[in-house]
Design goal:
Elements lengths: L2 E6 L5 E5 L5 E5 L3 H7 L6 E6 L3 H9 L17 E4 L3 H21 L12 H24 E10 L6 H8 L4 E5 L7 H4 L4 H11 L4 E4 L2 H13 L4 E3 L4 E4 L2 E7 L6 H8 L2 H13 L4 E8 L6 H14 L7 E8 L6 H21 L7 E4 L4 H9 L3 E4 L9 H8 L5 E5 L5 H4 L4 E3 L4 H13 L2 H15 L4 H12 L3
Parallel strand pairs: 1-4, 1-6, 4-5, 6-7, 7-8, 8-11, 12-13, 12-15, 13-14, 15-16, 16-17
Antiparallel strand pairs: 2-3, 9-10, 10-11
Helix pairs in contact: 1-18, 3-4, 4-5, 10-13, 11-12, 11-16, 13-14, 14-17
The structure holds 6-O-phosphono-alpha-D-glucopyranose.
The site of 6-O-phosphono-alpha-D-glucopyranose has 7 residues, from loops.
Length: 479
């Protein structure tokens, strides 16, 4: 059956792994899209994603037309087509362009004296990114029914909307960026033909969605300054190449009931008991992140160290629970970053630990139940990214924190739009300022933390994933 709605993203709702005896196991992912699409499972929606690893590719090749549902897998999100893209193309497109170029551009992560470098090798990666985007455009074009809708997700697929429009002009196409968008000067670090291709790729969509007005404005600025497109900031439209694309802001919140139910399960409760024992008699500063350069974990630890140095009264009275689960470890920058996180945490423990007290409890393994437990025990939640599209940790923590947590939040996270008035905002580069904010959060009366946390929790569930998806679909409705 042709799909009335096609969702396309690099990472799909499920992934596969291989047990020791060779049996293949499917795991379902978490996150906004998965939660939103779960509620579409019984409709004519189809999800197109890439096979990320060898085992995913083997499963996808064995399934008829890559259709996992037709191979008998219950993904929980309805039909899924997984594309077994050539591993070399995948590696160059995903590691080289999506995660090392576009992610770095939008999060402004380069150290410009040495990176970026756009040379011959990089051009090979760019060609792979074009091939990868074309593979998605081909598959969506095959799957979508007449006058159907396609929701293309994120920076991995910047070129796909335009390529899809060339193949299927009858479709209504949206693109959604889960990341920030870079301001024009920074965006223009890209070679000019590539900068244009990325913008024109997204503008192939009828609607381009962002998580924050800031990122939408930056996109409009880039369209105007880099592409010379006609931008209407009141109507929020871009006119280019004879077509108009509307630009919208669709903030994403969390699925409150689903998250609460998961956090009440026995595996989480067992970890809460362990953490309570390890932090007994102390206030807890929690943080939960992917081990991701943009999350700014090292500066967060440095701020905690400065707190202990400048306000010694907190020594022995606070524990920093920092859980950073592995991410993108094919990239050397990420492996080095994990090492830096481990090093700074060890330095803090060396400097301050006593036989009765460890100032930092660091975990760098993947343990979702433990992350939820860190939220439940938090008195203070530290979320200090350099730049972040939204940041759902800032929304999940206050909902689950049992005693109520004060939120120390980077002004550079999209979540600051909604949560800013009810939290302690920090400049992510200002370690002393972050230490001050941690001190203020710890010094608040417990009741004040609880009241603030309840307000944050209300705001966090205001736009659950399904409503977020629906708002994009309404923006896409034919005018
Ligand atoms: C960000 C991106 C997502 C991505 C996720 C995890 O949130 O916006 O598109 O899936 O990071 O990164 P990974 O490379 O592991 O998919």
């Amino acid at each position: 059956m042709p799909a009335g709605l096609v969702i396309a993203s690099n990472r799909g709702p499920v992934s596969f792994s291989e047990g020791e005896s060779g049996q293949v196991r499917m795991s379902r992912g978490a996150g906004g899209l998965v939660a939103a699409l779960g509620s579409f499972a019984a409709t004519d929606a189809l999800w197109v994603c890439a096979a990320l690893r060898d085992v995913d590719r083997r499963v996808a090749r064995a399934a008829p037309g890559g259709r996992l549902d037709q191979a008998g897998y219950d993904t929980g999100t309805g039909p899924v087509r997984m594309l077994p893209i050539d591993p070399l193309v995948m590696r160059r497109a995903y590691n080289g362009i999506a995660n090392t170029t576009l992610w770095f551009i939008h999060h402004m992560l380069y150290s410009t004296p040495s990176t970026p470098v756009f040379d011959l090798a990089w051009r090979r990666e760019w060609a792979a990114y074009q091939t990868y985007n074309a593979a998605f455009a081909d598959s969506i074009a095959e799957e979508a029914g007449p006058n159907g809708r396609a929701l293309v997700q994120d920076y991995h697929l910047s070129l796909a909307p335009r390529l899809l429009r060339q193949r299927r002009p009858d479709l209504l196409i949206a693109h959604f960026s889960h990341t920030p968008w870079a301001p024009p000067d920074y965006f223009s670090l890209l070679p000019s033909d590539v900068a244009r291709e990325v913008l024109e790729g997204v503008l192939g969509a009828d609607h381009a969605g962002f998580l924050s007005p800031r990122w939408a404005r930056a996109f409009l600025d880039c369209a105007e300054h880099v592409l010379g497109a006609a931008v209407d900031r009141t109507a929020m439209t871009v006119r280019h190449d004879g077509r108009t694309t509307s630009v919208g802001v669709h903030p994403l919140g969390i699925d409150g009931p689903g998250l609460r139910a998961r956090a009440a399960q026995a595996d989480v409760t067992a970890r809460v008991s362990d953490l309570r024992e390890q932090t007994e008699g102390c206030l807890v500063i929690s943080r939960v992140d992917r081990t991701e350069l943009s999350k700014n974990i090292v500066r967060g630890l440095a701020a905690y160290r400065e707190l202990l140095r400048t306000r010694p009264q907190w020594q022995g009275r606070v524990v920093h629970v920092a859980f950073a689960y592995p991410s993108r470890h094919d990239l050397p920058e990420y492996r080095e970053y994990t090492a830096a996180v481990l090093r700074v945490a060890a330095e803090i423990n060396d400097e301050f630990a006593t036989p009765q007290w460890s100032p930092v409890l660091l975990g760098v393994e993947d343990d979702y139940a433990r992350s939820l437990a860190a939220y439940r025990v938090a008195d203070v939640l530290l979320v200090n990214p350099i730049r972040d599209g939204m940041n759902l940790v800032a929304k999940e923590g206050p909902l689950l924190s049992e005693r109520g947590c004060a939120l120390v939040l980077s002004s550079e996270a999209g979540a600051a739009d909604e949560l800013g008035p009810h939290c302690l905002l920090v400049n992510p580069f200002d370690i002393s300022g972050t230490a001050d904010a941690l001190h203020e959060a710890l010094s608040m009366p417990a009741q004040q933390r609880l009241t603030g946390s309840r307000r944050l929790a209300e705001l966090s569930v205001a736009m659950p994933p399904r409503a977020w998806l629906d708002s994009q679909l309404s923006a896409l409705a034919p005018h």
